[in-house]
Design goal:
Subcellular location: Cell membrane
Mean pLDDT: 71
Radius of gyration: 40 Å
Shape: globular
Number of strands: 15
Protein name: Membrane protein involved in the export of O-antigen and teichoic acid
Strand content: 5-15%
Low-confidence stretches: 550-760
Main location: membrane
Transmembrane segments: 12-34, 40-64, 84-113, 119-135, 155-172, 178-205, 226-246, 266-289, 310-335, 341-362, 374-393, 399-420, 432-454, 466-490, 530-548
Helix content: 55-70%
InterPro entries: Poly_Biosynth_Transport (IPR050833), Polysacc_synth (IPR002797)
Distance between the termini: 74 Å
């Protein structure tokens, strides 16, 4: 690659980085102000204007850039080219502006798009003139090799647009005039284009005189060749731009402005992949034109192959990064209202990668001037894109548009490989596509895993910081470059050779590293083998983590109120009743007000009481579950404890134990012991506990010794709702679902219990 070409690429790329940064900072502001519906209207208007300007300016801008750069023996060649294309640009701009104004005045615009679009198209007629001379002035400077002037004008254009458009849009939006807010954005376009055109002409007049703009061309001037090139360029650019805008126009006609706004947001992010390929395409048209005129075919093939490889690597890592961070980048960049744009973005990325690689190849073919094969390749991709959009958009909306456009973009790379060979150069001679594909596939799992691990958002000064959006781009680049060097997709020596011509301090640093690497005793093959082994281990670790981590790819929250409980009791019939409940924690208070440590007892656990010869005292009772759908025996707030102290000489009737639980099922059970009258302990303690799962329980100590041999257990099962009223010695049970009641007699005491119905 020649130094002049590299310096031009650096100038263009540097400017594109600045405009990219400005766009990153200002685009979300504009999109948030206009909202998806306003963005849909604005995008539709700009798409129509872009397609219309192909007929007005494409032949002019490409022609003036190409023919000024050619070395001809004719006197004042550059001045004649500048004058010829200026007059042509003026004529086409006037005709184009008149056509737009006429279509708007006659009502055609209102019939196709709606009455609200008439104001926008009147503004477009003015914008046609200023945009024509903005493009003409910039491309003329590029033809002179003055990228250091032409590219900063793009920064001027972007800054002027922000200064004019954003305040107008904000004021109109604040007053509720969304349609006028879109017009404010168009006014910003007009003002910025006019500023660039004025500055550009001032710079042009430093190379040629003002008179040359109106001086007739001499005999022997290749007018027909220039016009033929213009006509072919118009066809090529029209087909090329149809890939950008046909999907938007069809989506607007078949869907609504909201979907157009979401889809445009996805396209905006996908087009970030193109900033370096666009820089290469911009420079290669006029730079390779000189190489073609000198028959340096081998140098062109070498340039095309290395450019294809570098472009593929760069856009692959960018596409991978966007895919990994799409769920974070879209809501952070555009706002959560643009979340529907995430899926179209993911669908667009593969095709955007292919189109990015095809751009420099297309530019080299344009530089030769033989546009027949590039037109055939672009036309084939555009035709397939049009058919797919017509089929998929009515069924799938913006997702169908994304799939169709992605396929059309990807076919651009395939078809232009064929076109390049027909033109006379081979862009795949040193492209190493297999190694690049392996690099991308191997680096994807570790990058996805890192993005998953770093998906945290710490808060700083009340603002959430998406950590993955800050760290993953750097870590992902390191991992990708590691695999690229390990697999041979990149060579360290060629990278250092590429960096050596750069300005200080990059150039001197690259030269020093190049010398140190050349003196290293370890062979490059040994280093590559070590890197391959390390890369495989990194890939396997990423895949293993993705499969072993249960939270990767989705969040599985545990069910609420999950508890661990003791094993369920087994009945002779082998029936087990289960109910999910939270464990209940109660505090036991002795009669003499001595407080014991809190004890946690599952509601379904039954502790056998102890028996003394003098009296029967129950220290721990059988837990009986009571579940009811609408009526509860006891309802108290959580953690409410009621203590009732009775004199030690009080003789009480048999205690009644009632426990009420209100889980999802509804069952009501009441268990009473026999009619045996016993002497209660010095105090009677009533505990009420309501666990987190809305469980209400009331427990009063039992005064009956309970012993239940398993052989004497009788189970009675009732379905639906049964209510039994009996004297004190009779058990009353009501159940909604399935409940079990066991009645056991032991000695002189009769006890009625209800077994545990909670599944462990």
């Amino acid at each position: 690659m020649q130094r002049s070409i590299l310096s031009g690429v650096i100038s263009v790329a540097g400017t594109k980085v600045l405009t990219l940064v400005i766009g990153i900072l200002t685009t979300p502001i504009l999109y948030r102000l206009l909202e998806p519906a306003g963005v849909g209207i604005y995008t539709t208007v700009i798409s129509v204007f872009s397609l219309f300007m192909i007929l007005v300016s494409s032949g002019v801008t490409d022609g003036v850039r190409k023919f000024i750069a050619e070395e001809r023996e004719m006197d004042c060649w550059e001045a004649h080219v500048v004058g010829f294309y200026f007059r042509l640009a003026l004529l086409l701009a006037g005709v184009g502006a008149g056509i737009l104004a006429l279509l708007t005045w006659s009502g055609v615009v209102a019939w196709i798009f709606g009455p609200q679009y008439e104001l926008y198209f009147y503004l477009l007629s003015i914008m046609t003139i200023v945009s024509q001379f903005r493009a003409y002035s910039r491309r003329t400077l590029m033809g002179f090799g003055l990228e250091r002037y032409s590219e900063p004008l793009k920064v001027v254009q972007r800054v002027a647009f922000v200064i004019v458009a954003l305040p107008l849009v904000y004021v109109m939006k604040d007053r509720g005039l969304l349609e006028i807010a879109v017009a404010g954005a168009l006014v910003g376009k007009i003002a910025s284009a006019a500023a660039v055109a004025i500055i550009g002409f001032i710079l042009i007049f430093q190379r040629v005189s003002l008179r040359s703009l109106f001086r007739p061309t001499p005999e022997g001037f290749p007018r027909r060749k220039m016009l033929a090139f213009n006509s072919l360029s118009i066809v090529l650019i029209l087909l090329l731009m149809s890939l950008y805008h046909v999907d938007i126009l069809m989506l607007q006609a078949l869907a609504d402005n909201m979907q157009v706004g979401y889809y445009r947001a996805a396209l905006k992010l996908a087009e970030f992949l193109w900033f370096v390929p666009l820089a290469l395409q911009t420079v290669f048209v006029h730079s390779t034109s000189e190489l073609w005129s000198n028959d340096k075919t081998e140098q062109i093939s070498e340039l095309a192959a290395r450019t294809t490889r570098y472009t593929f690597l760069l856009t692959a890592i960018m596409a991978l990064g966007l895919a990994v961070l799409a769920n974070i980048a879209v809501p952070v960049y555009f706002g959560s209202q643009y979340n529907p744009a995430i899926m179209p973005l993911l669908l667009l990325l593969p095709g955007a990668l292919g189109f990015a690689v095809a751009r420099p190849v297309l530019a080299i073919a344009q530089g030769k001037g033989e546009l027949k094969y590039p037109i055939a390749a672009t036309g084939s991709a555009a035709g397939i894109n049009l058919v797919l959009n017509a089929i998929l958009i009515p069924q799938f909306g913006m997702h169908g548009a994304a799939v169709s456009t992605s396929i059309g973009y990807g076919l651009m790379f395939v078809f232009h490989l064929w076109s390049a060979r027909k033109v006379g150069f081979d862009p795949l001679s040193d492209a190493r596509l297999g190694r690049i594909l392996a690099t991308t596939l191997l680096s994807a799992p570790p990058i996805f895993v890192l993005a998953h691990l770093l998906d945290v958002r710490p808060t700083l000064l009340g603002v959430e910081l998406p950590l993955a959006l800050i760290i993953i781009p750097l870590l992902g680049l390191i991992i990708f470059l590691f695999f690229a060097f390990a697999l041979g997709a990149l060579d360290l020596h060629e990278v250092l050779d590429l960096l050596t011509p750069l300005p200080e301090p990059l150039g001197s640093t690259a030269e020093t590293l190049k010398t140190n690497v050349s003196e290293d005793t370890m062979s490059s093959d040994s280093m590559q083998k070590m890197m391959v082994v390390a890369g495989i281990l990194l890939f396997v670790s990423g895949i293993g983590y993705a499969f072993l981590d249960p939270g990767f790819g989705g969040d599985s929250d545990p069910a609420p109120n999950m508890t661990t409980q003791p094993p369920a009791s087994t009945t002779p019939a082998g029936t087990t009743d289960s109910t999910s409940l939270s464990s209940t924690t109660t505090e036991e208070t002795t009669p003499d007000s001595t407080t014991k440590p809190p004890s946690t007892t599952p509601p379904e656990e039954t502790t056998p009481p102890s028996t003394t010869p003098a009296e029967e005292t129950t220290q721990s009772q059988s837990s009986t579950r009571t579940t009811q759908s609408s009526t509860t025996t006891t309802t108290t707030p959580p953690s409410t404890t009621t203590r009732t102290t009775q004199p030690s000489t009080t003789t009480t009737p048999p205690s009644t134990t009632t426990r009420t639980t209100q889980p999802p099922s509804s069952t009501t059970s009441t268990t009473q012991p026999s009619t045996t009258t016993t002497t209660a302990p010095p105090s009677t303690t009533t505990r009420t506990t309501q666990p987190p799962s809305s469980t209400t329980s009331t427990t009063q100590p039992s005064t009956t010794t309970t012993t239940t041999p398993s052989s004497m257990t009788t189970r009675t099962t009732q379905l639906l709702t049964t209510t039994t009223t009996a004297p004190l010695s009779t058990t009353t049970t009501g159940t909604d679902m399935l409940s079990m009641t066991s009645t056991v007699q032991f000695g002189t005491s009769t006890t009625t219990t209800q077994p545990n119905t909670t599944g462990m």
